[in-house]
Amino acid sequence: MFERCFGSTPTDLEGASVVRVQRITTPLGPMLAGATDDALCLLKFVDRRALLTQIARIRKGLGAVFVPDRNPIVEQTAREVESYFAGTPEVFTVPTSAPGTEFQKTVWRALATIPYGETRSYAELAQTIGRPSAVCAVGSANGMNALAIIVPCHRVVGADGKLVEYGGGVWRKQRLLELEVSATGGRT
Hints:
Layout: H1 2-6, E1 17-24, E2 31-35, E3 40-45, H2 51-62, E4 64-68, H3 72-85, H4 102-111, E5 120-121, H5 122-128, H6 135-143, E6 156-157, H7 170-183
Parallel strand pairs: 1-4, 5-6
Antiparallel strand pairs: 1-2, 2-3
C-alpha cells in the first residue's frame, strides 16, 4: 500500500532525499504535510482529487522518497496551521520549497503576496506577474500549488468575484475566506 501511494518503499532511502509526511487534523478535514529536513514541500487536504499526482510530481522534482515520520518542519507546520484555524497568524514562517517551473514559482510567489482576508482574480494575478494575457496559465499554476493555505491559492476568485475551482473543494475555499475575514474583523 505504501509503495503504491508514494512510489517507493521505506527501504529505498539510501541516497535519496527524504520527505517526511504526517497527517494534520484541521476543522476542515485532515491534511497531509510533507517536509524535507529544510523545508515544507507538501500541504494538501487528503481528499484532494489530485493528491497522488502532487506526490508523484514532488517525488520526481526532488528525487525524493516519502516516509511516514515527523520532523521539526512538519511539527512547525502543524502548529502554524492550528494557529491559522484559531484566527492567527496572518503570516506563516515555516520555510517552504516546492518543485515547479519558473513560471509556476513566479505565480506562487505572487499568491503569497495576497493579503490575509483579501482576494484577487486570476486576471489580477496575471497582471501582477507582468503576464496579463496568461490568465489560463496562471489558473493552471494556481492549481499546481502544493502548499495549500500557506501559499494561499484559496484567495483567487473569478473575474466577477465569485468563488471558482479549488482543489480542496469550493466549500473549503469559502470557509477559509470566511475564517480570514472573520479574523480581520471584516476588513479587506
